[in-house]
Design a protein that fits this description.
This protein has about 210 residues and is α+β, with helices and mostly antiparallel strands. Helices cover about 50% and strands about 25% of the residues.
């Protein structure tokens, strides 16, 4: 996960205020991750990298819960006179190695895997697609057939630095109710537009998707 426009936000704060803000933010989102069986691997400035050793549902529900927690967090920020924040979350499922790297003077425990890099790339795609939560096809494939998550397929995307495409889905359970309901109502129209888009029929796709906006 990553805070949107954090650089712009941090420029308006002193170093002490930045530390205070991040500490307060993490105090809100970290318990959500732990509640779903996840654990924090590391902090990347304003980013959080978490691992979920259980089922894909655990990670996806934690992501949705984080977005809902941010809504409550923003209500407190509004009362205190601060601007609301937004976050983007990317999820990917794959094999990795958890171990210790470094040398005798400086050791660090972390995870090493292409899956980790791809999760980061997918998080970055939330900015391109203008959505809050993106998950890879491997996550969706691991969900129970009767899962309750609201998903829509955005097609195959080639992540930066990768040679193969990855299937990407938006999960919009964390969206405001009005927006999520709108996506439900236009589901068939959106899917039809994406079919045309994947065929390379961009004009007809654009006409169809105009009705979704």
């Amino acid at each position: 996960s990553d805070i949107r426009d954090f650089t712009l936000l941090s420029e308006q704060l002193t170093p002490r205020e930045n530390f205070s803000f991040l500490t307060n933010y993490l105090r809100h989102v970290n318990p959500v991750i732990r509640a779903r069986g996840g654990f924090i691997d590391k902090y990347l400035g304003d980013g959080v990298m978490a691992l979920f050793p259980g089922e894909p549902e655990d990670a996806l529900q934690a992501a949705v819960d984080m977005l809902k927690q941010i809504v409550q967090y923003n209500e407190g920020r509004k009362r205190a006179g601060y601007a609301p924040i937004r976050i983007g979350i990317g999820l990917h499922r794959g094999s990795l190695i958890l171990g210790t790297i470094g040398e005798t003077e400086r050791m660090h425990t972390t995870v090493i895997a292409d899956a980790v890099n791809l999760a980061s790339r997918i998080e970055g795609m939330t900015k391109t697609f203008g959505v809050q939560l993106l998950v890879s096809g491997t996550v969706v494939d691991g969900l129970a057939k009767d899962h309750h998550f609201r998903l829509r397929h955005l097609g195959a995307v080639k992540a930066k630095g990768k040679t193969q495409s990855v299937e990407i889905f938006e999960c919009y359970d964390g969206d405001p109710a009005e927006l999520a309901d709108r996506k439900d109502l236009t589901e068939e129209l959106f899917d039809a537009g994406m079919v045309e888009f994947r065929k390379g029929l961009f004009l007809s796709a654009g006409i169809i998707l105009t009705g979704v906006a």
